[in-house]
Amino acid sequence: MSDRVFAAIDGSQYSESICDYAVWAAKALGAPLSFIHTLDNHSLVAEPDLTGHLGLGTREHLLEKLSDIEEQRAKVAREQGRYTLDAAKARAIEAGITDPLCLQRNGTLVETLVENEKEMRLLVLGKRGETAHQASGHLGSNLERVVREMHRPLLMVPKQFTQPKNVMMAFDGSKTARKGIEMLAKSPLFEGAACHAVIVGAETAENRSQLEWAIDVLESAGHHAEGAIRAGEVEETLRAYKQEHGIDLLVMGAYGHSRIRHLLIGSRTTAMLRNAHLPVLILR
């Protein structure tokens, strides 16, 4: 049963924001909340090349020492993870969440999330993980892999929490995008929010018809709805619209062949998502 909001947390500077967005989503959806922390023990200590060391005894001694070091690092990582989970749980309870669940698992983040996917209604995670300071100009590799593997909506969040009031859907009339508009219209997440549908393309009769459909669906659900058709490069056009209208959450589809749906995952990672300072809800 996919009914829980899952928040993937680690020791990164995104953890508090992940917690706050997950709390907001769980309360809006009336869904239970789970925090999950993974321990990828294979990444804790790199296995050295000992072929140049003389003497079997020396090599065995070094391997024993490295095994002890790895065990200690794994223990410290587990303890740090538990502290992180405890802090997230306390923050969520203080914000009004009843009995959030904390899970700590061994394995890669992607494997762990896929194993728990059936229970997910929404997954919340940060733009980058604990090594964000080492790759400030790039998306975290875990995020890209998660988007590729998961089949649940995913909310990628920035470092600071802001409750969304102006939501923009990058719309292209595709099946995924139309589902996205319908989701925006009826989701408790966006109750009271202004919703914008933006088509990046030419002013054609087909695009105008698609936009009018989107606005009608949103208005029929009680939203203040706006829309626009704008020519130009996708990233620049959406960024400009975001700034003009104070957009604080972007909704996009993850896959497809259109220019918009190709933004997230493909042969390149786009400048828009790399530089995003607002949450992005990725639909599947």
TrEMBL record:
It holds the Pfam family Usp. It comes from the Bacteria. Gene3D superfamilies: 3.40.50.12370. Residues 1-158, 206-284 form the UspA domain. SUPFAM superfamilies: Adenine nucleotide alpha hydrolases-like. Belongs to the universal stress protein A family. This is Universal stress protein UspA. It comes from Vreelandella alkaliphila.
